[in-house]
Amino acid sequence: MATASIVALDDDTVRSMSIGAVFSDFVGKINSLDFHRKDDLLVTANEDDSVRLYDIANARLLKTTYHKKHGTDRVCFTHHQNSIICSSMHNLETGDSLRYLSMYDNRCLRYFKGHKQRVVSLCMSPINDSFMSGSLDHSVRMWDLRVNACQGILRLRGRPTVAYDQQGLVFAVAMEGGAIKLFDSRSYDKGPFDAFLVGGDMAEVCDIKFSNDGKSVLLSTTNNNIYVLDAYAGDKQCGFNLEPSPSTPIEASFTPDGQYVVSGSGDGTLHAWNISRRSEVACWNSHIGVAACLKWAPRRVMFVAASTVLTFWIPNSEPELASAKGEAGAPPEQASL
Description:
By secondary structure, the protein is mainly β. The protein has one helix at 11-15; strands at residues 17-23, 30-35, 41-46, 50-55, 60-66, 75-77, 83-87, 98-102, 107-112, 119-124, 130-135, 139-144, 147-155, 161-164, 170-175, 179-184, 194-197, 205-210, 216-221, 225-230, 236-241, 252-254, 260-264, 269-274, 279-285, 293-296, 303-306, 310-315, 322-324, 333-336.
């Protein structure tokens, strides 16, 4: 599978996206996934307690590690290509809700204790070793990879969802009732410097992302509404309604140029919209049911969609479909932690 480096996208390129590779060599669904910011790598956290590392340029599974004691739920890369942060699915009462893991030698480098319930949102600062986690215990916690202890706590209502902007200077917290609060990441203890509401929608926000230029914020709600907001004024630029999926929150993603939004839907389709024209550009059959996880690669004309199957989508009218049970080449490494 050949993937192109990112260029300015247009409607025809987005419309031509189709499946270029399929991975199904795991049990259950994928809980979350993340791209490395600078390298062509994808990491997934799976319901079978595995973490899997993929080479997206060559559509190849590189390594699998198992984490039976704590399980794997939310996952994100650190700045290092072989290090990740992963939240726990099991034994949450012990407080070991977050782990800093080395994929290179399958070691847990550090535990981060504090959350008493499941972590539902996790993000790494793009500029330093700080990261944030939002939990069903109604708190957002700030951490530093170099220190075990929590660096700060925000107590909030509802299910908090968090995201840094691409410059790492601002972070957003979405909470109960469609409220979005913006904080200066260097002085968050002084409280939010701005706040706004998603008017008319009281559903909880299950995912939030900034565009690369920091000018827009993308929200996905638990009732499968998607909104693009002006990050400075909070004005709603556009909104899209999708088919409901009561037990499966969906994820939406900006393209790297910030001109398009791609998302799954409760009816098993995938959609792409042109933001400036507020119009749908493409609708595809996902071929995998409801895609709970969907992200566009930061450096490639490519996105991935996942449920119980992981699919790589590329702009190719006649794709060479690679069905991967470990992919061609040397067998992937497997380990257990």
